[in-house]
Structures are given as structure tokens and as C-alpha cells.
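User: Continuing from earlier, I have the next pair ready.

Assistant: Great, send them over.

User: Here they are, in order.

Assistant: Folding the first of the pair now:
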Amino acid sequence: MNARQDNAGNDSKFRIMTSNIWGNCGDNAIANRDDNLADVFMEYMPDVLGLQEVSPKARREPVSLFDLLDGRYTEVAVPIGELSNNYTPLLHTQRLTVLESGFHRFSGLNDSNSKSITWAVFECTRSGQRFAVCNVHFYWKSDQAGEEARRSNSRELMSVADAIQQRWPVPVCCIGDFNCRIGSAPVQHLFEHGFLDAQVTAAVQTSDSNAHHPYPKWDEAQQAFVHGPAPTGTYREAIDHVFYRGDQAAVGEYVTVLDQKALDASDHCPVYADFSFEGGGKL
């Protein structure tokens, strides 16, 4: 469902997707998971793709996910300072040009420096419409220290989003693995500062699903991951989100991708929203 070949013919609509690829996998094989993810991304063809958990191991694969997407997607170049890896890269198709980009590592608790924001301001090469995307991964532990870390993550994300919109009067989308539900204090902080939830405001309501689920199983005989279970629960339990701020942004459809290839690739389903940015993308 909702797959497409291309969106280049409609210069006012853009598909924005987030996907935690389960890249912090230690000694576990990646095996067929990259191929499954590439197939899913190429089928649904988001214009902007935000990934989380892109570990050094994920980048070092003999044929990595980036190799499989080469020719259709380009990674946004950002300075990461003294860090050795960007775990939260943004990718985009050729219909978009990057006007400005940046990176922010969250302060405080931060395993392997993997919790960060990669952001970019995009312009459609044909229509000139502009919008910004922040790809984020909040801290994960469920204890009190983890909760405080996510509150801090939310405040820092707001500072980044505010700074972008001060320089660029365009809508901004914040996507990613927030590791907290919509009723949590970190997410409510975003809502209190003008952000909306794409799942709630979508004109076409097709997804009321949690996107987080148990890991797929390793099949020794096949040397592959299989039988990834579908998530249980509703969107109220979800920790992967698409939020946005900007009066000229509208959401057509919000989708949690439940294809078996997606379920066999990670413990998170990809999630996307189809946006239109009327009036040139101005606030």
C-alpha cells in the first residue's frame, strides 16, 4: 500500500520518512536486513529519509545500505567535529537541494554519542519550495535519569528548530526515534512550542499502529533474519514520530510501514508522512 515510483511530477508534495535501522547490533550479523531496508525505501521512495542507529558497523558492510541506495539517495554532509560517526544521517533524492545543514550531539547521557540531530533546509529544484527537517534520536533508558535526559533532548531540539526558523522562514519537520510516547513530557514540550503531530493532523488516517516491535529472528540455515513480528498496540504506544511546525504545512497521509521486509529488518517500522508546503513553503 502507498508505494510509488516517483513524486517528481508533483512539486508541492513531499514524502518524509523516519527509520531506526537497528544498526547498534554488536556482534550480530546484518545479513539480509540492509537488502530488506533498501527494498522498502526504494518502494516507498521518500524524498527525505532520516535514519537512526547507523553505527560504524552499518557503514562498514561490504555492501552497505548506502551502497544499495546509491544513485537515488545522497547523504546530507554535516560537520560532526571530533566524533567519528554520525548515527542519525539524513538522505534525500535529487529533486531536492540542500541550502544549509548542521549537526547537534545531545548533551548529557549519550551512549556511543549516538543520540543527536542531523538537520537540513531543503529546496525543491523545480518549484523552489523550501522546508527543513531535523532527524533525531533521543536517549533510551526508561529510568529517571533517562527521563531527565529526554527532557533535555527535547529542549535542545527546540533550540535547534528555533534557530533554523529564525534564519529560514520555512516549515520544519522533526522526525525520528524519540524513545517516548506522545503523552510524555518531552513530546508535550514540543507541542507547547507550536509543533503538531502528523499522525493526528493527517487528512487520510491510515495508521493507528505502534511502530516498535520485537526483533526479527535469526535463521541459521538461511543465514538471514526472518519472521519479524508486527507491532502490537496503537499509536499511543509509539515512540517513532513525525512532528512539524509551520502554518503552510499540511499532511496528506501518515503511514506506518508494516511490510514483512520492514519487519524482518529492524525492531522499528519505517514511518512516513506526505506533506504539502503551499505558498512556497513560507511560514
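And the other member of the pair:
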Amino acid sequence: MWSKEEIIDYLKDNLKESRYIHTMGVVQCAIKLAKLNNIDPKRAEIAALIHDAAKYMDIEKQKKIIKDHGYDIDEVMEESPQLLHGFTASILGKDMMGIEDEELLSSVRYHTTGKKIMTTLEKIIYIADYIEPNRNFPGVEDLRKITFDNLDEGVLQGLSNSIIYVVKNGNMIHPLSLEARNYLISQKNKSIL
């Protein structure tokens, strides 16, 4: 497996400076959330480091990599190819960087959409990407507070905010995001009963 330094060198060579700064913010946030939620911070750090590793890779190249590895590219991803980079980054993590931790790779794969029945690490990478310290949008401070008080509540609010944003912009909502949100609501309702 690549060392942390080798991964960072790859990121510096393949990301714009603003995206690299964002990535380091995600790392910082993911480590804090991991410690708070009894997850190995080193796993969260590696996942956060590679989550956007394919962000600027050519879309057609990403599609080829994804298809060559047996994944289908659904209608929503065809319409919104910016969603592909998580899948591509997880493949790069495994094939190029030698990462074998499947849960870690899954957290990278689904960091843009979420999915039904997310592990704690998957939730951490999803929401750390959203609330890292360099993010600045109305409500981010409230979302940070919610997340650090209760990870599930933060992820649920993040999914809800994202879905509203996508709808307002007239774009397609990925079914995985709806499944993730619905599942968290179902779990929340069961715990209330």
C-alpha cells in the first residue's frame, strides 16, 4: 500500500490547489469525527485523502475505468458525471495505491451520494466532505454542530440539504441518496417508538 506521503504527492500532482486544500480539510474533519465515533482515525484519514483523487480525471476515462471494473453507470450518473469520481477514486485506491480495506474503499465510492445502510466510516466521509472547515455556505455552522453532536442526524440533514439543492437546480436526484435518507429516517422513527 502507498504511504500517506505517496498519496499526498499524487494529490498534489493531480488536483487543483483549491481541491487539495479542500481535501486536507476533509482529512481534518474526518479524523475528528472518527475519534468521536470510535473509528480508527488512520482509516478515516486515508479515505479522506483519496476521496477526490479522480476529481479532475477525464470523464470518458473515468467511465472506461468504472465499466472495466464491472460497475454499471446508471442514468443519473450519465446525466451528472460529476458523481463518477468517487467510484473512480475507489478503483484507483485499490488498483494503483494498493488499498485493500473494502469498507474504506466503499466510503470513497459513495461519498457523493451516500447509500442505504451506511457504515460509520461511510457516514464520516460523506459528511466530512460536506462540512470540512473550508466550506462556507448558509447553515454550515449549524450542520457542523448537529454532526458533532450526533453523526446520524448530521448525515440525515446533509442528505436532505443536498437533495433540496439538486431539486432547486433542476437536476436528477441519485436513487442512492434517496435510499440513504429514507433508511436513516426509518431508523430514527424506529428508535423513537
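Worth noting for the second one:
The chain has eleven helices and no strands. The chain has one domain: 4-192.
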